[in-house]
Amino acid sequence: MFEKLKQLFSGVEEDTAKTTMSLELATAALLIEVSKSDFQQDPVEIEKIHELLVRCFSVSLTDIEEFMATATALNKDSTSLYPFTRYINDNCNNLEKYELIVALWEVAIEDGQIDKYEDHLIRKISDLIYLPHTEFIRAKLTTSEKAKAK
């Protein structure tokens, strides 16, 4: 029994999660979290996540459903944003972090409005990945302008 507790607290399980984590999965999990943050996971937001994953990563259209199921399960099993934001911090530069925040805004605005919970979550993620506040605001304004131009 004590051995199990020692393994639990030593982070052995966390290490196995690290080995399965990828930039694509971390990004997808954060995008999914934003789509659920307003308590209404709109189908257009899910479609936008699919589009972003196909456009930005090597996820093929044939594998997208399986990949989304994996990302959703990873998101569901997680109790915090930490594993995803830590992976982003360890593996991305500021430009890539900025592009992630733009993608999060694209998902948030896809249903026609940015909910206060979506705004709060994106701000929190931006803080957790140490993106300067000016870049957070620039990403929001850029995405809002693109959405108005549609």
UniProtKB/TrEMBL annotation:
InterPro entries, per database record: DjlA_N (IPR007791), TerB-like (IPR029024)
Transmembrane spans: none
List, for all copies, the residue spans of the domain called Co-chaperone DjlA N-terminal: 24-140
Identify the Pfam families for this entry.
TerB
State the superkingdom: Bacteria
Q: What is this protein called?
A: TerB family tellurite resistance protein
